[in-house]
Every structure is written in C-alpha cells, then in structure tokens.
Amino acid sequence: MKDPVSGPSPAKRWLSAIMVLLLVLVLTIWYVAPPSKPKQEQQARPAPRSTEWAPEPAGPAVPVNLPKTPMTNVPDQKR
C-alpha cells in the first residue's frame, strides 16, 4: 500500500534542484560580471563656447561717483 502523504516524485525533485542551481548560477554570473553601461566616446574637438554668456565689455567702465563723507560710528541705542 502506498503512503498517502508521500513526498514529491523524483522527477519533480530533480526539476526543482536544477531550477535552484540555474538561479544560483545566473545570480553568481550577474554579481561577478554585472552588465556595464556603454562607454561614452570622447569628443574629438572641445565643445564651442556657450552663447548664453555676454562677452566682457572692452570699452571704458561706467563712472561711479561715491560720496566723500567720513564714516561715523553710531552709539548703541538702549531702550
């Protein structure tokens, strides 16, 4: 008489063992040699200057007239 609570058949055990081994093999390969991003090629020529910046003015500077007053210290105000 066969035991009603017997384990899985030998074919299922072999299949599950092979699946586990394949999973371990794939994870090991992925960990050792992960997929890498494609390398970016270096530019042969440097990029041209950006046009969003204004050029430095070459003419005379804008005149600035500062007042000629001496600096005085203001005492602390107590309330």
Describe this structure in words.
The protein starts with 9 loop residues before the first helix and ends in a 47-residue tail after the last helix. It is mainly α and 79 residues long. It has a domain at 10-34. The chain has 1 helix and no strands. It has one helix spanning 10-32. Helix content is 29%, strand content 0%. It is elongated, with a radius of gyration of 40 Å.
**Total of DSSP H or I helical runs spanning 4+ residues:** 1
Secondary-structure element series: H
Q: Please indicate the percent range of residues in DSSP E strands (runs of 2 or more).
A: under 5%
Distance from first to last alpha carbon:
106 Å
Task: Outline the biggest β-sheet.
Answer: none
Mean residue pLDDT: 80
Look at the helices and sheets and give the structural class: mainly alpha
Low-confidence sequence ranges: none
Inertia-based shape: elongated
Helix content: 25-40%
Number of distinct beta strands: 0
**What is Rg?**
40 Å
